[in-house]
Every structure is written in structure tokens, then in C-alpha cells.
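Please, structure for the following, as C-alpha cells.
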Amino acid sequence: MKVPAGIRVFGDMEFRGPCASEAAEQVTFFARLRKQYPQYGQIALHPRNEGKRTHLQAAKEKAEGMVTGATDIIIPSNPSFVCELKRRNHTLSSLHKPQIDYMSAAQEAGCFVCVALGADAAWEAFLEWSDAKAQ
């Protein structure tokens, strides 16, 4: 997986081996967030923009506000936390152009933007973001 320069990666890019699915990692992250930081757990979201759609479904969802490439974890704040969650073994994942475009636009808008390799890496990114907000 190739991450564009300027977008931080949390996690071990050298890790290879079996690992949980992206969905399982996401469930782990959100459960931990809701338990340990309920104030963020109440507003954190995962945009449902995966899956195949017919042309009509895609047009309708875009008209309703769906954004292609939106990241897996978004926490609205100042700055917002914008995190694309991938599998711990990043060779089992890929970044697509719409995801890169979304992250680049979010970064340009002043968001904290990152790619996290697994739930633990997403948690590390979240803690760095929340610590920076507290200062």
C-alpha cells in the first residue's frame, strides 16, 4: 500500500502475517472509544460508503450527501479527526484514489488526517490527536 507523502501512517509498515479484518478492527476501535472517551464516542462516525451500487443508487446517495472516499473514522471537532483504517498487515489492504483525494482535501482543510494499520494504531493516532487538542 502506497501512502502519499504528507499523510501520517500509524502502525508498523513492516508487519506481515495474519491479522483481523478491517471491519473487526473498526469494531474494536469504536467499542474502546465509546467506553473510554464517551464524549467522542457519541459523535464519532463511520460513513457507510462501501459496497456496490447501481448507477441510480449511487446518484441518489451522492445527491443525499455521500462522499466517495470518505475515511473510516471521522470525529468532528476542531480540528476534526480523519482516519482511514486498514488491516494491520497493510499488504492485505489498498488505498484508492478517492480515499487519497478525500484525505488530502481534509488535510488541506486543517483536519488531523492519518492512515492507521489496525485498531491499536488508530488508538495511538486518536490519543495523539486528543492530547494535542488538550494543549
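The longest strand covers residues 81-86. The beta strands are 8-10, 73-75, 81-86, 112-117.
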